[in-house]
Specification:
Largest interface: A-B, 27 and 24 residues
Structural class of chain A: alpha+beta
Distance between the termini of chain B: 16 Å
Order of helices and strands of chain A: HHEHHEEHEEHEEHEEEEHEEH
Radius of gyration of chain B: 19 Å
Structural class of chain B: mainly alpha
Shape of chain B: globular
Number of strands of chain B: 0
Oligomer: heterodimer
Order of helices and strands of chain B: HHHHHHHHH
Shape of chain A: globular
Number of domains of chain B: 1
CATH class of chain A: Alpha Beta
Mean pLDDT of chain B: 91
Chain lengths: 315, 215
Protein backbone atom coordinates (compact mmCIF):
# COMPACT_ATOMS: atom_id res chain seq x y z
CA UNK A 1 0.00 0.00 0.00
CA UNK A 2 1.58 3.27 -1.04
CA UNK A 3 2.02 5.86 1.60
CA UNK A 4 1.49 9.54 1.02
CA UNK A 5 4.58 11.54 1.72
CA UNK A 6 4.77 14.58 3.84
CA UNK A 7 2.57 17.57 3.44
CA UNK A 8 3.02 20.73 5.39
CA UNK A 9 1.12 20.07 8.61
CA UNK A 10 -0.72 23.34 8.20
CA UNK A 11 -2.46 22.18 5.05
CA UNK A 12 -5.97 21.02 6.00
CA UNK A 13 -6.80 17.47 5.04
CA UNK A 14 -10.30 16.09 5.16
CA UNK A 15 -10.40 13.09 7.41
CA UNK A 16 -11.60 10.06 5.56
CA UNK A 17 -11.59 7.66 8.45
CA UNK A 18 -14.64 8.73 10.34
CA UNK A 19 -17.12 11.52 9.81
CA UNK A 20 -15.29 14.55 11.04
CA UNK A 21 -18.02 15.61 13.38
CA UNK A 22 -17.57 12.36 15.25
CA UNK A 23 -13.85 12.83 15.45
CA UNK A 24 -13.59 16.36 16.62
CA UNK A 25 -15.19 18.11 19.49
CA UNK A 26 -17.80 20.35 17.95
CA UNK A 27 -16.08 23.50 19.10
CA UNK A 28 -12.74 22.59 17.58
CA UNK A 29 -14.48 21.47 14.43
CA UNK A 30 -16.26 24.74 14.01
CA UNK A 31 -13.16 26.66 14.88
CA UNK A 32 -11.45 24.96 11.98
CA UNK A 33 -8.75 23.61 14.25
CA UNK A 34 -9.23 20.16 12.84
CA UNK A 35 -6.38 20.84 10.41
CA UNK A 36 -4.21 17.83 9.86
CA UNK A 37 -4.73 16.04 13.14
CA UNK A 38 -7.12 13.24 13.72
CA UNK A 39 -7.23 14.04 17.37
CA UNK A 40 -9.64 16.66 18.54
CA UNK A 41 -8.23 16.68 22.01
CA UNK A 42 -8.52 19.67 24.21
CA UNK A 43 -6.74 20.05 27.51
CA UNK A 44 -8.88 17.60 29.37
CA UNK A 45 -10.27 14.18 28.73
CA UNK A 46 -13.81 15.53 28.70
CA UNK A 47 -13.06 16.99 25.29
CA UNK A 48 -11.84 13.69 23.88
CA UNK A 49 -13.50 12.71 20.65
CA UNK A 50 -15.28 9.45 20.02
CA UNK A 51 -13.53 6.94 17.78
CA UNK A 52 -15.14 4.45 15.47
CA UNK A 53 -13.69 1.11 16.45
CA UNK A 54 -14.89 -2.45 16.37
CA UNK A 55 -14.28 -4.81 19.26
CA UNK A 56 -11.85 -7.50 18.26
CA UNK A 57 -13.25 -10.67 19.87
CA UNK A 58 -9.86 -12.38 19.71
CA UNK A 59 -8.37 -9.94 22.17
CA UNK A 60 -10.64 -9.87 25.11
CA UNK A 61 -10.25 -10.93 28.73
CA UNK A 62 -12.29 -12.25 31.58
CA UNK A 63 -10.74 -9.61 33.84
CA UNK A 64 -12.86 -6.59 34.55
CA UNK A 65 -11.50 -3.49 32.81
CA UNK A 66 -10.24 -0.69 35.00
CA UNK A 67 -12.36 2.41 35.17
CA UNK A 68 -11.66 5.28 32.79
CA UNK A 69 -10.79 7.32 35.85
CA UNK A 70 -8.19 4.83 37.13
CA UNK A 71 -6.58 4.55 33.71
CA UNK A 72 -6.41 8.29 33.17
CA UNK A 73 -5.41 9.48 36.65
CA UNK A 74 -2.88 6.88 37.76
CA UNK A 75 0.01 6.23 35.42
CA UNK A 76 3.62 6.98 34.66
CA UNK A 77 4.47 9.53 32.00
CA UNK A 78 7.62 11.14 33.39
CA UNK A 79 7.47 13.84 30.70
CA UNK A 80 4.73 15.39 32.84
CA UNK A 81 6.24 14.57 36.24
CA UNK A 82 7.18 11.53 38.27
CA UNK A 83 4.07 11.33 40.47
CA UNK A 84 1.27 9.01 39.42
CA UNK A 85 -1.23 11.87 39.20
CA UNK A 86 1.19 14.31 37.52
CA UNK A 87 0.34 13.16 33.98
CA UNK A 88 -3.36 13.87 34.43
CA UNK A 89 -2.78 17.07 36.39
CA UNK A 90 0.01 18.58 34.33
CA UNK A 91 -0.69 17.59 30.72
CA UNK A 92 -3.38 20.18 30.04
CA UNK A 93 -1.04 22.38 28.00
CA UNK A 94 0.06 19.60 25.69
CA UNK A 95 -1.06 19.93 22.06
CA UNK A 96 -1.42 16.57 20.31
CA UNK A 97 -2.38 18.20 17.06
CA UNK A 98 -1.24 18.84 14.46
CA UNK A 99 1.02 15.80 14.65
CA UNK A 100 3.46 14.09 12.39
CA UNK A 101 5.85 11.17 12.63
CA UNK A 102 9.28 10.99 11.01
CA UNK A 103 10.21 7.61 9.59
CA UNK A 104 13.86 6.91 8.87
CA UNK A 105 16.57 4.28 8.72
CA UNK A 106 16.43 0.96 6.93
CA UNK A 107 13.19 1.52 5.02
CA UNK A 108 12.27 2.11 1.42
CA UNK A 109 9.72 4.80 2.25
CA UNK A 110 11.22 7.18 4.77
CA UNK A 111 9.71 10.60 5.30
CA UNK A 112 7.58 12.72 7.48
CA UNK A 113 4.01 11.48 7.71
CA UNK A 114 1.10 13.36 9.16
CA UNK A 115 -0.95 11.49 11.70
CA UNK A 116 -3.76 11.39 9.20
CA UNK A 117 -1.50 9.79 6.59
CA UNK A 118 -0.52 7.19 9.14
CA UNK A 119 -4.03 6.33 10.27
CA UNK A 120 -5.89 6.51 6.99
CA UNK A 121 -5.76 2.91 5.74
CA UNK A 122 -6.16 1.24 9.13
CA UNK A 123 -9.42 0.09 10.62
CA UNK A 124 -9.40 0.83 14.32
CA UNK A 125 -10.19 -2.00 16.70
CA UNK A 126 -10.77 -2.23 20.41
CA UNK A 127 -8.67 -4.70 22.35
CA UNK A 128 -8.83 -5.47 26.04
CA UNK A 129 -5.24 -5.92 27.26
CA UNK A 130 -3.59 -6.45 30.59
CA UNK A 131 -0.97 -3.83 31.45
CA UNK A 132 1.74 -4.79 33.93
CA UNK A 133 3.95 -2.02 35.24
CA UNK A 134 7.52 -2.84 36.23
CA UNK A 135 6.57 -1.35 39.63
CA UNK A 136 4.39 -4.43 40.29
CA UNK A 137 0.95 -2.99 39.70
CA UNK A 138 -1.38 -3.80 36.85
CA UNK A 139 -4.48 -2.70 35.01
CA UNK A 140 -6.85 -3.95 32.33
CA UNK A 141 -7.31 -1.40 29.55
CA UNK A 142 -9.61 -1.29 26.50
CA UNK A 143 -7.27 0.22 23.92
CA UNK A 144 -8.31 1.48 20.51
CA UNK A 145 -5.66 1.02 17.87
CA UNK A 146 -4.33 -1.08 15.04
CA UNK A 147 -1.52 -3.62 14.61
CA UNK A 148 1.91 -2.02 14.36
CA UNK A 149 2.79 -4.68 11.76
CA UNK A 150 0.31 -3.22 9.29
CA UNK A 151 2.00 0.17 9.50
CA UNK A 152 5.53 -1.21 9.39
CA UNK A 153 4.74 -3.06 6.16
CA UNK A 154 3.71 0.20 4.52
CA UNK A 155 7.15 1.68 5.16
CA UNK A 156 8.76 -1.35 3.47
CA UNK A 157 11.67 -2.09 5.80
CA UNK A 158 14.79 -3.39 4.09
CA UNK A 159 16.40 -6.72 4.91
CA UNK A 160 18.81 -4.88 7.17
CA UNK A 161 16.04 -3.64 9.45
CA UNK A 162 16.31 -5.75 12.62
CA UNK A 163 14.98 -3.32 15.20
CA UNK A 164 12.33 -0.62 15.34
CA UNK A 165 13.13 2.43 17.45
CA UNK A 166 10.54 4.90 18.73
CA UNK A 167 11.01 8.38 20.12
CA UNK A 168 8.69 10.53 22.22
CA UNK A 169 8.22 14.18 21.35
CA UNK A 170 10.54 16.64 23.12
CA UNK A 171 8.57 19.70 24.20
CA UNK A 172 9.74 21.03 27.56
CA UNK A 173 7.40 24.01 27.14
CA UNK A 174 4.37 21.72 27.14
CA UNK A 175 5.80 18.83 29.15
CA UNK A 176 6.95 20.16 32.53
CA UNK A 177 8.67 16.91 33.48
CA UNK A 178 11.15 17.36 30.63
CA UNK A 179 12.53 20.51 32.27
CA UNK A 180 14.52 18.39 34.71
CA UNK A 181 16.80 15.55 33.55
CA UNK A 182 15.13 12.78 35.53
CA UNK A 183 15.62 10.72 32.38
CA UNK A 184 17.71 11.36 29.30
CA UNK A 185 15.09 13.10 27.13
CA UNK A 186 13.68 12.42 24.66
CA UNK A 187 12.38 9.01 25.72
CA UNK A 188 13.46 6.21 23.40
CA UNK A 189 12.13 2.67 23.20
CA UNK A 190 12.62 -0.17 20.77
CA UNK A 191 11.49 -3.59 19.71
CA UNK A 192 13.11 -6.41 17.82
CA UNK A 193 11.54 -6.68 14.37
CA UNK A 194 9.68 -9.92 15.17
CA UNK A 195 8.25 -8.31 18.32
CA UNK A 196 7.13 -5.29 16.34
CA UNK A 197 5.47 -7.51 13.73
CA UNK A 198 3.68 -9.67 16.30
CA UNK A 199 -0.09 -9.40 16.03
CA UNK A 200 -0.40 -8.50 19.73
CA UNK A 201 1.69 -5.36 19.29
CA UNK A 202 -0.46 -2.34 18.52
CA UNK A 203 -0.24 1.37 18.12
CA UNK A 204 -3.03 2.89 20.17
CA UNK A 205 -4.82 6.13 19.41
CA UNK A 206 -7.53 5.81 22.01
CA UNK A 207 -9.00 4.05 25.00
CA UNK A 208 -12.58 3.43 26.05
CA UNK A 209 -13.70 4.38 22.54
CA UNK A 210 -12.24 7.88 22.72
CA UNK A 211 -9.08 9.52 21.51
CA UNK A 212 -6.18 9.13 23.95
CA UNK A 213 -6.10 11.70 26.73
CA UNK A 214 -2.82 13.64 26.78
CA UNK A 215 -1.72 11.83 29.93
CA UNK A 216 -1.96 8.43 28.28
CA UNK A 217 0.29 9.27 25.34
CA UNK A 218 -1.78 11.25 22.86
CA UNK A 219 -2.02 11.10 19.98
CA UNK A 220 -0.14 7.89 19.20
CA UNK A 221 1.47 5.33 21.50
CA UNK A 222 2.82 1.83 21.54
CA UNK A 223 1.18 -1.04 23.45
CA UNK A 224 3.08 -4.31 23.90
CA UNK A 225 1.00 -6.25 26.41
CA UNK A 226 3.52 -8.97 27.29
CA UNK A 227 6.18 -6.44 28.26
CA UNK A 228 6.46 -4.11 31.23
CA UNK A 229 4.60 -0.86 30.74
CA UNK A 230 7.68 1.29 30.20
CA UNK A 231 8.14 -0.34 26.78
CA UNK A 232 4.85 1.27 25.73
CA UNK A 233 6.32 4.56 24.55
CA UNK A 234 3.93 7.48 24.33
CA UNK A 235 3.39 10.49 22.06
CA UNK A 236 5.56 9.02 19.30
CA UNK A 237 7.16 11.42 16.79
CA UNK A 238 9.88 9.23 15.35
CA UNK A 239 10.07 5.68 14.08
CA UNK A 240 13.45 4.44 12.98
CA UNK A 241 14.51 1.09 11.57
CA UNK A 242 17.99 -0.06 12.54
CA UNK A 243 20.33 -2.96 12.19
CA UNK A 244 21.67 -2.68 15.73
CA UNK A 245 19.80 -2.94 19.00
CA UNK A 246 19.06 0.63 20.10
CA UNK A 247 19.98 2.17 23.43
CA UNK A 248 16.67 2.65 25.22
CA UNK A 249 15.90 5.16 27.95
CA UNK A 250 15.34 3.07 31.08
CA UNK A 251 17.95 0.56 30.01
CA UNK A 252 20.50 3.39 29.80
CA UNK A 253 19.36 4.78 33.12
CA UNK A 254 19.78 1.52 35.06
CA UNK A 255 20.89 -1.42 32.89
CA UNK A 256 20.74 -3.90 35.76
CA UNK A 257 17.16 -3.02 36.54
CA UNK A 258 15.54 -2.49 33.14
CA UNK A 259 16.48 -4.75 30.27
CA UNK A 260 15.92 -4.13 26.59
CA UNK A 261 13.39 -6.96 26.38
CA UNK A 262 11.52 -6.21 29.62
CA UNK A 263 9.23 -9.18 29.16
CA UNK A 264 6.93 -9.64 32.14
CA UNK A 265 8.51 -12.48 34.10
CA UNK A 266 7.50 -13.46 37.64
CA UNK A 267 10.70 -15.45 38.02
CA UNK A 268 13.14 -12.65 37.32
CA UNK A 269 12.93 -10.07 40.08
CA UNK A 270 13.73 -6.43 39.69
CA UNK A 271 16.96 -6.10 41.72
CA UNK A 272 15.10 -4.03 44.29
CA UNK A 273 11.72 -5.73 44.42
CA UNK A 274 9.94 -8.96 43.59
CA UNK A 275 8.04 -9.38 40.34
CA UNK A 276 6.24 -12.53 41.46
CA UNK A 277 3.02 -10.73 42.33
CA UNK A 278 1.18 -7.63 41.27
CA UNK A 279 -1.39 -5.31 42.72
CA UNK A 280 -4.42 -4.74 40.54
CA UNK A 281 -5.27 -1.06 40.45
CA UNK A 282 -8.81 -0.30 41.52
CA UNK A 283 -8.97 -3.14 44.03
CA UNK A 284 -9.91 -2.34 47.61
CA UNK A 285 -7.41 -1.48 50.32
CA UNK A 286 -7.51 -5.00 51.69
CA UNK A 287 -7.50 -6.97 48.43
CA UNK A 288 -4.62 -9.41 48.16
CA UNK A 289 -2.03 -9.17 45.41
CA UNK A 290 -2.34 -11.60 42.54
CA UNK A 291 0.32 -13.78 40.97
CA UNK A 292 2.05 -12.32 37.91
CA UNK A 293 1.88 -14.54 34.84
CA UNK A 294 4.80 -15.29 32.53
CA UNK A 295 4.67 -12.85 29.61
CA UNK A 296 1.78 -11.21 31.44
CA UNK A 297 -0.51 -14.09 30.48
CA UNK A 298 0.39 -13.96 26.77
CA UNK A 299 2.96 -16.77 26.89
CA UNK A 300 0.99 -18.95 24.50
CA UNK A 301 1.23 -16.29 21.80
CA UNK A 302 4.72 -14.91 22.37
CA UNK A 303 6.93 -17.38 24.24
CA UNK A 304 8.12 -18.82 20.92
CA UNK A 305 9.73 -15.49 20.04
CA UNK A 306 12.28 -16.12 22.77
CA UNK A 307 12.88 -19.83 22.34
CA UNK A 308 16.43 -20.72 23.27
CA UNK A 309 17.09 -17.43 25.00
CA UNK A 310 18.14 -17.29 28.62
CA UNK A 311 15.43 -15.04 30.00
CA UNK A 312 17.41 -14.41 33.17
CA UNK A 313 20.17 -12.90 31.09
CA UNK A 314 17.95 -11.18 28.56
CA UNK A 315 15.49 -9.68 31.01
CA UNK B 1 18.47 34.19 77.18
CA UNK B 2 15.30 35.80 78.26
CA UNK B 3 13.07 32.87 77.45
CA UNK B 4 15.12 30.65 79.73
CA UNK B 5 14.05 32.73 82.68
CA UNK B 6 10.67 31.04 82.68
CA UNK B 7 11.35 27.67 81.21
CA UNK B 8 8.50 25.64 82.50
CA UNK B 9 5.54 27.99 82.46
CA UNK B 10 3.04 25.13 82.43
CA UNK B 11 0.21 26.77 80.53
CA UNK B 12 2.62 27.87 77.83
CA UNK B 13 3.99 24.34 77.56
CA UNK B 14 0.54 22.86 77.39
CA UNK B 15 -0.34 25.30 74.63
CA UNK B 16 2.81 24.43 72.63
CA UNK B 17 2.18 20.75 73.04
CA UNK B 18 -1.45 21.00 72.02
CA UNK B 19 -0.54 22.83 68.83
CA UNK B 20 2.23 20.35 68.04
CA UNK B 21 -0.07 17.41 68.77
CA UNK B 22 -2.77 18.67 66.44
CA UNK B 23 -0.31 19.42 63.64
CA UNK B 24 1.35 16.02 63.97
CA UNK B 25 -1.98 14.22 63.98
CA UNK B 26 -3.32 15.98 60.88
CA UNK B 27 -1.65 13.81 58.21
CA UNK B 28 -2.74 10.67 60.05
CA UNK B 29 -6.29 11.95 60.32
CA UNK B 30 -6.27 12.81 56.62
CA UNK B 31 -4.99 9.36 55.64
CA UNK B 32 -7.52 7.68 57.91
CA UNK B 33 -10.39 9.73 56.51
CA UNK B 34 -9.38 8.81 52.97
CA UNK B 35 -8.96 5.15 53.89
CA UNK B 36 -12.58 5.09 55.06
CA UNK B 37 -13.88 7.22 52.18
CA UNK B 38 -15.02 9.97 54.53
CA UNK B 39 -16.90 12.74 52.70
CA UNK B 40 -16.01 11.29 49.33
CA UNK B 41 -12.22 11.54 49.85
CA UNK B 42 -10.35 8.39 48.89
CA UNK B 43 -6.83 7.06 48.74
CA UNK B 44 -7.12 6.98 44.95
CA UNK B 45 -6.59 4.19 42.42
CA UNK B 46 -3.83 2.52 44.45
CA UNK B 47 -4.94 2.85 48.08
CA UNK B 48 -2.31 0.47 49.46
CA UNK B 49 0.52 2.48 47.97
CA UNK B 50 -1.06 5.78 49.00
CA UNK B 51 -1.42 4.62 52.61
CA UNK B 52 2.01 3.06 52.96
CA UNK B 53 3.83 5.90 51.22
CA UNK B 54 1.82 8.49 53.13
CA UNK B 55 2.68 6.96 56.51
CA UNK B 56 6.33 6.46 55.57
CA UNK B 57 6.81 9.97 54.18
CA UNK B 58 5.26 11.64 57.20
CA UNK B 59 7.19 9.41 59.58
CA UNK B 60 10.47 10.39 57.94
CA UNK B 61 9.54 14.07 57.83
CA UNK B 62 8.64 14.03 61.52
CA UNK B 63 11.88 12.27 62.34
CA UNK B 64 13.80 15.06 60.61
CA UNK B 65 11.61 17.70 62.27
CA UNK B 66 12.50 16.12 65.62
CA UNK B 67 16.16 16.58 64.74
CA UNK B 68 15.49 20.22 63.84
CA UNK B 69 14.24 21.07 67.31
CA UNK B 70 17.60 21.61 68.97
CA UNK B 71 19.11 23.84 66.27
CA UNK B 72 15.91 25.84 66.03
CA UNK B 73 15.68 26.22 69.82
CA UNK B 74 19.28 27.42 69.99
CA UNK B 75 19.16 29.70 66.97
CA UNK B 76 15.87 31.30 68.03
CA UNK B 77 16.90 31.25 71.69
CA UNK B 78 13.71 29.43 72.61
CA UNK B 79 14.84 26.57 74.86
CA UNK B 80 11.22 25.79 75.69
CA UNK B 81 10.92 24.24 72.23
CA UNK B 82 13.16 21.43 73.49
CA UNK B 83 10.20 20.13 75.47
CA UNK B 84 8.48 19.22 72.20
CA UNK B 85 11.06 16.65 71.16
CA UNK B 86 9.41 13.72 72.93
CA UNK B 87 6.04 14.44 71.38
CA UNK B 88 7.51 14.84 67.90
CA UNK B 89 9.69 11.77 68.23
CA UNK B 90 6.82 9.62 69.45
CA UNK B 91 4.66 10.79 66.57
CA UNK B 92 7.44 9.95 64.11
CA UNK B 93 7.67 6.49 65.66
CA UNK B 94 3.88 6.07 65.49
CA UNK B 95 3.79 6.87 61.77
CA UNK B 96 6.74 4.61 61.03
CA UNK B 97 5.35 1.73 63.08
CA UNK B 98 2.03 2.08 61.24
CA UNK B 99 3.97 2.28 57.95
CA UNK B 100 5.61 -1.04 58.80
CA UNK B 101 2.36 -2.64 59.97
CA UNK B 102 0.52 -1.49 56.84
CA UNK B 103 3.28 -3.00 54.71
CA UNK B 104 3.25 -6.20 56.77
CA UNK B 105 -0.49 -6.68 56.91
CA UNK B 106 -1.96 -4.99 53.85
CA UNK B 107 0.81 -5.19 51.29
CA UNK B 108 2.33 -8.52 52.33
CA UNK B 109 -0.85 -10.05 53.84
CA UNK B 110 1.31 -11.27 56.79
CA UNK B 111 3.03 -13.73 54.46
CA UNK B 112 5.94 -14.55 56.74
CA UNK B 113 8.09 -16.08 54.03
CA UNK B 114 7.77 -13.09 51.71
CA UNK B 115 8.34 -10.68 54.56
CA UNK B 116 11.52 -12.38 55.70
CA UNK B 117 12.76 -12.67 52.11
CA UNK B 118 12.12 -9.00 51.45
CA UNK B 119 13.82 -7.87 54.64
CA UNK B 120 16.83 -10.08 53.97
CA UNK B 121 17.13 -9.61 50.22
CA UNK B 122 15.99 -6.09 49.35
CA UNK B 123 18.44 -3.50 50.67
CA UNK B 124 15.84 -0.74 50.85
CA UNK B 125 13.61 -2.95 52.98
CA UNK B 126 16.57 -4.04 55.11
CA UNK B 127 17.61 -0.50 55.99
CA UNK B 128 14.03 0.62 56.55
CA UNK B 129 13.45 -2.27 58.92
CA UNK B 130 16.74 -1.58 60.70
CA UNK B 131 15.75 2.06 61.17
CA UNK B 132 12.49 1.03 62.78
CA UNK B 133 14.26 -1.43 65.09
CA UNK B 134 16.61 1.34 66.22
CA UNK B 135 13.65 3.53 67.11
CA UNK B 136 11.87 0.95 69.27
CA UNK B 137 14.11 1.34 72.35
CA UNK B 138 13.85 5.10 72.01
CA UNK B 139 10.07 4.97 72.08
CA UNK B 140 10.10 2.55 75.02
CA UNK B 141 12.49 4.68 77.08
CA UNK B 142 10.80 7.98 76.27
CA UNK B 143 9.06 8.18 79.66
CA UNK B 144 10.26 10.29 82.60
CA UNK B 145 10.81 7.12 84.60
CA UNK B 146 13.21 5.65 82.06
CA UNK B 147 15.02 8.98 81.72
CA UNK B 148 15.67 8.99 85.46
CA UNK B 149 16.62 5.35 85.59
CA UNK B 150 19.08 5.56 82.70
CA UNK B 151 20.61 8.88 83.67
CA UNK B 152 23.55 9.76 81.39
CA UNK B 153 23.09 6.57 79.44
CA UNK B 154 19.67 7.82 78.30
CA UNK B 155 21.35 10.46 76.15
CA UNK B 156 23.77 7.94 74.73
CA UNK B 157 20.91 5.63 73.86
CA UNK B 158 18.85 8.34 72.24
CA UNK B 159 21.63 9.22 69.83
CA UNK B 160 20.33 6.20 67.93
CA UNK B 161 17.94 8.63 66.30
CA UNK B 162 20.81 9.77 64.06
CA UNK B 163 21.53 6.42 62.37
CA UNK B 164 17.78 5.74 62.29
CA UNK B 165 17.11 8.96 60.37
CA UNK B 166 19.98 8.27 57.99
CA UNK B 167 18.74 4.75 57.30
CA UNK B 168 15.24 6.13 56.79
CA UNK B 169 16.58 8.53 54.14
CA UNK B 170 18.48 5.70 52.43
CA UNK B 171 15.35 3.54 52.50
CA UNK B 172 13.54 6.26 50.58
CA UNK B 173 16.42 6.93 48.17
CA UNK B 174 16.78 3.25 47.29
CA UNK B 175 13.16 2.74 46.45
CA UNK B 176 12.70 5.54 43.93
CA UNK B 177 13.20 4.65 40.30
CA UNK B 178 14.74 7.78 38.86
CA UNK B 179 13.51 10.89 40.61
CA UNK B 180 15.83 11.20 43.60
CA UNK B 181 14.97 14.85 44.29
CA UNK B 182 12.80 14.38 47.38
CA UNK B 183 15.03 11.80 49.11
CA UNK B 184 18.07 13.91 48.19
CA UNK B 185 16.44 16.89 49.88
CA UNK B 186 15.92 14.86 53.06
CA UNK B 187 19.50 13.66 52.99
CA UNK B 188 20.69 17.26 52.54
CA UNK B 189 18.58 18.34 55.52
CA UNK B 190 19.93 15.48 57.60
CA UNK B 191 23.52 16.32 56.62
CA UNK B 192 23.01 19.99 57.46
CA UNK B 193 21.57 19.15 60.87
CA UNK B 194 24.45 16.78 61.63
CA UNK B 195 27.03 19.32 60.48
CA UNK B 196 25.48 21.91 62.76
CA UNK B 197 25.66 19.56 65.73
CA UNK B 198 29.19 18.52 64.97
CA UNK B 199 30.44 22.11 64.77
CA UNK B 200 28.56 23.15 67.85
CA UNK B 201 29.59 20.26 70.04
CA UNK B 202 33.24 20.78 69.18
CA UNK B 203 33.09 24.26 70.68
CA UNK B 204 34.64 24.60 74.12
CA UNK B 205 32.05 24.56 76.87
CA UNK B 206 30.94 27.70 78.59
CA UNK B 207 30.70 29.94 75.56
CA UNK B 208 27.45 31.77 74.99
CA UNK B 209 24.69 29.74 73.49
CA UNK B 210 25.85 26.38 74.79
CA UNK B 211 23.01 26.08 77.23
CA UNK B 212 22.94 22.68 78.82
CA UNK B 213 19.29 22.34 78.01
CA UNK B 214 20.23 22.33 74.37
CA UNK B 215 21.68 18.92 74.00
Amino acid sequence: MPVKKTRPPSLPLPSEITPAARFFGRREFLAGLAAAGVVGLGPDAAQAAALKATKNPRYTLKDKPNSFEDITTYNNFYEFGTGKSDPSERSGGFKPQPWSVTVSGEVERPGRYTLEDILKPHALEERLYRMRCVEAWSMVIPWVGFPLADLVKRFAPTSRARYVVFKTVLRPAEMPGQRFPVLDWPYVEGLRMDEAMHPLTILAVGLYGQTLPNQNGAPLRLVVPWKYGFKGIKSIVEIQFTEKQPATTWNLMAPREYGFFANVNPEVDHPRWSQAQERRIGASLFAAKQPTLPFNGYAEQVASLYRGMDLRRFY
Amino acid sequence: MRAAARPGAPSRLRFDKTIAFVLCALPLAWLTARAFDVAGFTLGPNPVEALIHGLGSWGLRLLLITLCVRPVAVLLRQPRLMRLRRLLGLFAFTYLALHFLAWLGIDQSFDARNVVTDIAKRPYVTVGFAALLLLIPLAVTSTDGWMRRLGRRWQMLHRLIYPAALLGCLHFLWLVKADWREPALYIAIFATLMAWRWRRDRRPAGRPGTATAAR
